[in-house]
């Protein structure tokens, strides 16, 4: 299946890939290989699209919807955190007043470094 076929089943993007990972600490985690996924409230990238951080390229391999209640510790580690609770507290600290609702849906973007 081509990237175009995979993307055909997804809704339109709500933002551009250059806004996918912007927090300085998260950028560093991506560059160090500690962060291989990010969750956003909208779809920021297509499968196969390339994100550039500090001159290094990362290709988006998977994009899918997930509820916060489905998140696991392993997925929190993909986000660069030690546990789901650490990830949850980080998100809530960035968005004061936002409740953590298990039924709330987010878009998962999984990526890997581009190797020559």
Q: Can you give a write-up of this model?
A:
The structure is a single chain. This protein is an alpha+beta fold and 116 residues long. The chain has a single domain (3-113), classed as Sulfate adenylyltransferase (Roll), CATH 3.10.400.10. The protein is 27% helix and 25% strand. The protein has 4 helices and 4 strands; from the N terminus they run ααβββααβ. It has helices spanning 3-8, 24-31, 73-78, 84-94, and strands at residues 37-40, 50-53, 56-67, 105-113. A 4-stranded antiparallel beta sheet has the order 1-4-3-2. The radius of gyration is 14 Å and the shape is globular. The two termini are 22 Å apart. The mean pLDDT is 93.
Features:
four-stranded antiparallel sheet, 4 strands, Sulfate adenylyltransferase, 4 helices, alpha+beta, 116 residues
Give the proportion of residues in helices. Answer: 25-40%
**Beta-strand level of the residues, as a percent range?**
25-35%
- Give, in spatial order, the strands making up the sheet with the most strands: 1-4-3-2
Biggest pleated sheet: 4 strands, antiparallel
List segments where confidence is low: pLDDT < 50 over at least 5 consecutive residues.
none
Question: Can you tell me the CATH topology?
Answer: Sulfate adenylyltransferase
At CATH level 2, the architecture is: Roll
| Overall average residue pLDDT | 93
Q: Supply the helix-strand structural class.
A: alpha+beta
In CATH, the homologous superfamily goes by the name: Sulfate adenylyltransferase
Overall spatial form: globular
For the record, the CATH class is Alpha Beta
Output the radius of gyration: 14 Å
How many beta strands in the DSSP annotation?
4
Element pattern in H and E: HHEEEHHE
